[in-house]
Design goal:
The chain has three domains: 2-62, SH3 type barrels; 66-124, OB fold (Dihydrolipoamide Acetyltransferase, E2P) (Beta Barrel); 128-184, OB fold (Dihydrolipoamide Acetyltransferase, E2P). The protein is 2% helix and 54% strand. The chain has one helix spanning 95-98; strands at residues 2-3, 12-15, 18-28, 36-43, 49-55, 59-62, 66-76, 79-84, 90-94, 110-116, 119-124, 128-136, 149-154, 159-163, 171-175, 181-184. The longest helix has 4 residues, at 95-98.
């Protein structure tokens, strides 16, 4: 159990029988009445976002998650298969849980998966990953205006904007948090 004052960004709690992560926290002291903690929470199972106020002395259940480093193997239908690097066990995870992170999963990519009661709750990708450019238009000579970009399709099927000098087959570094081009790999 932790108090409202102990809540921090990234803390996982049991709120109304749902597993929620704290996205934002703000301590508010109004002119009248007692201080409170205004939070933005995200339900990790339904992915819904909600706002809630906690009194400073109010207690909530802090949830401990079991983190495992896993390696992405392949996708089959609606399931993504990961291998636990400690036990070498293959674990299927539904595509509804993976969501937009599927844009960044290539075979043999290592990710951190947090479990609660053997149920995957959080998927944490590395901040940046390297991808091969599968398809892009050739850059036209003479287009030298600064920061001109063109669309490129990665090996995963994800489309992003890259500078004109990037060609098919090149390895590029992509920020997995924003989905933006970072540079050549």
């Amino acid at each position: 159990m932790i108090t409202g004052n102990d809540l921090k960004k990234g803390t996982v709690i049991n709120f109304n029988n749902s597993i929620c992560i704290v996205l934002e926290k703000e301590h508010i002291k109004p002119g009248k009445g007692g201080a409170y903690i205004q939070t933005t929470l995200r339900d990790l199972r339904s992915n819904k976002t909600l706002n809630n106020r906690f009194r400073s002395s109010e207690t909530v259940d802090n949830i401990r998650l079991e983190g495992k480093t896993m390696q992405f193997l392949y996708k089959d239908g609606g399931d993504f298969y990961f291998m636990d690097l400690e036990t070498y066990e293959s674990v299927p995870i539904k595509d509804t849980f993976i969501g937009d992170n599927a844009n960044y999963l290539v075979p043999e990519c290592e990710v951190e998966v947090d479990f609660y009661d053997n149920e995957p709750i959080l998927l944490d990708l590395p901040p940046s990953l390297n991808f091969k450019v599968a398809e892009t238009m050739p850059g036209a000579k003479g287009n030298s205006v600064s920061n001109v970009q063109k669309p490129a399709t990665l090996e995963t099927g994800y489309v992003l904007n890259v500078p004109l000098f990037i060609e098919e087959g090149e390895l590029i570094k992509v920020d997995t948090r924003s989905g933006e081009y970072m540079g050549r790999a």
